[in-house]
Amino acid sequence: MKEYLTPMGPTPLHVNPIFEIGPLEPRFSEWLVFEGISVDESGRQHFLDASVAYKRAVLNAIGYLSRFGYSKEQAYLLLSCCPCEGRISGIVDSPNAVATLAIPTAIFDQDIRPKNNKVPVGPRLVRNPNIPQCTYDGNLPTTKNPCAME
Q: What SUPFAM superfamilies does this protein's entry cite (predicted)?
């Protein structure tokens, strides 16, 4: 890292890492796509904020997958490691930004596609009171860039 990258912050550890992916790329043909717009959980509109739109797309996917027996924590972990594709899908529809998250359906051992007049039910959820639960109140912490000009 020292040879190829210039530090981007106050210490040599503040770099933008690079990595090489494996030689085989997974190819999927069917995807389930979730959309989010730049309106937060309270209904407040964030003018063309793609970060809010993407967060809404991810939360929509988590909510949907939780209907198949996954806990919300399991769905979050699944999305963090599966070959999903996130995209900024629209920045021109002022005042809303649109983001999408596509999840390949082939990674599941059950059909997660929506069905007419059928609420999905899955067998996977295992409740264990000894596992810490995550909570989310809708507020994301913000960090300040120490290199930014005031």
A: Acetamidase/Formamidase-like
Query: Cα separation of 118 and 67, whole Å?
Result: 11
Q: C-alpha dihedral over 50, 52, 57, 61, to 10 degrees?
A: 150
What is the DSSP-derived secondary structure letter of residue 10? S
pTM of the model: 0.66
Beta-carbon contacts of residue 97 (< 8 Å; ≥ 6 apart): 37, 38, 46, 48, 49, 50, 52, 53, 88, 90, 91
Tell me the residue type at 143.
T
Q: What is the largest CA-CA distance in the chain?
A: 59
Contact 89, 35 (CB under 8 A): yes
In angstroms, the CA 83 to CA 97 distance is: 23
pLDDT in tens, the chain (150 residues): 566 666 667 776 677 767 777 787 778 889 999 999 999 989 999 998 999 999 999 999 999 999 888 889 999 999 998 999 999 988 877 888 999 999 999 998 888 888 877 766 555 455 566 766 666 666 766 666 666 666
